[in-house]
Every structure is written in C-alpha cells, then in structure tokens.
UniProtKB/TrEMBL annotation:
Name of protein: HTH arsR-type domain-containing protein
Entry keyword Transcription: yes
The keyword Transmembrane is assigned to this record: no
Alphabetized InterPro entries for the sequence: ArsR-like_HTH, HTH_ArsR_DNA-bd_dom, HTH_MetalResp_TranReg, WH-like_DNA-bd_sf, WH_DNA-bd_sf
Keywords annotated in UniProt: DNA-binding, Transcription, Transcription regulation
Species for this entry: uncultured Thermomicrobiales bacterium
Length: 119
C-alpha cells in the first residue's frame, strides 16, 4: 500500500495532535460527538472543575477543534468539523487493532488514562 506524504508541516501536526493529547480533552471531544453542549454539561461529563474544563476548552478552541457560540448567558460548544468524530473513531480502531503496546509503552510521558483524580 502506498501512503501519500502529508503536505502539512510536522510541527503543525504536532500542535494539532497536542489538542488530542489529554484524556480530559478527549472526553470533551467524545461528548461533543453526540452534539453541542454547554460548559455545565461538559463539567458533568469530565468530572473536573469549571476552571479546569474551561482551560481544556480554551486549548481545543485554540487548536480549532471546537467552536463556541454565545446563547444568552450560556456558551455552547460543538465540534468544529464532523471529521473530528471520524478521527476519534479511527483512533479507537487503530489503538485497538494496531497499537497493541500503547498501554505498556514507557518511552513517552503519558498522562493518566483516567480523568478521575485530576483537578
């Protein structure tokens, strides 16, 4: 199989994937795959503080992975592009089928796999 070389600079890809590199941000993105949500909804999903959830949302906004719309006193978040949901599904498949050593990898600084216990 021939795979086309990416046309995006590796540093740009690294910044993009940084947005996906935290378990809390992944929980937020997975929740938004189901539809738009408020910060209050996302706090309940992540089980994190309002401040922590807002910081992760700021990262996701900065990376262009989510958008925000103000509706009265509420900010509503949604995925910036439906392909992000596809990317998360593909990541699940690749992790399950190919990246069998990811749970035992000691060569990188992986964050805790569970959003519980982090503030």
């Amino acid at each position: 199989m021939t795979i086309a070389a990416p046309v995006i600079a590796p540093a740009t890809h690294a910044t993009f994937f940084h947005g996906l590199s935290d378990p809390c941000r992944l929980v937020i993105l997975q929740a938004l795959c189901e539809g738009e949500l408020t910060v209050t909804d996302l706090i309940a999903r992540t089980k994190r503080s309002q401040s922590n959830t807002s910081n992760h949302l700021a990262c996701l906004l900065g990376c262009g992975l989510v958008t925000r719309e103000q509706r009265g006193k509420y900010a509503v978040y949604r995925l910036a592009d439906a392909r992000i949901a596809t990317l998360l599904t593909l990541a699940d498949e690749v992790t399950r089928d190919v990246a069998t050593g990811v749970d035992t990898c000691t060569l990188n600084d992986r964050p805790s796999p569970s959003p519980e216990g982090r503030s």
